[in-house]
Write a structure and sequence with these properties.
Helices cover 19% and strands 0% of the residues. By secondary structure, the protein is mainly alpha-helical.
Length: 100
């Protein structure tokens, strides 16, 4: 009788562990990455701002007169035109996925 009870407890524990660990790991798609911002889609989002995407983001911000250098390791958000993930992913990394 004790052996049956022990076997039942072990089986239930294994089932509970399997259920609780579902949805974890590299292949879990339950919470996908957000879409990468796209300049010109009419939505000011992500790392877009008036200096790197005036089509989507409009305000009274004054952009710097410097021209940024893509690949220098600095994400220049106020240059003219400013860098963004879309323009220079090397300098402006952003965790997102291409949706369009």
């Amino acid at each position: 009788m004790k052996a049956r009870a022990l076997l039942l407890v072990a089986a239930l524990s294994l089932a509970a562990f399997s259920f609780m660990s579902q949805g974890c790991g590299e292949n879990d798609n339950s919470s996908p990455l957000p879409c990468c911002p796209v300049c010109g889609d009419g939505v000011c989002e992500g790392d877009e701002n008036p200096c790197n995407c005036g089509a989507d983001c409009q305000s009274g911000v004054v952009c710097a007169l410097t021209v940024p250098t893509c690949g220098d390791g600095v994400c220049d958000h106020v240059g003219s035109p400013a860098e963004s993930h879309e323009r220079c992913p090397a300098d402006c990394p952003l965790t997102c996925r291409a949706c369009r």
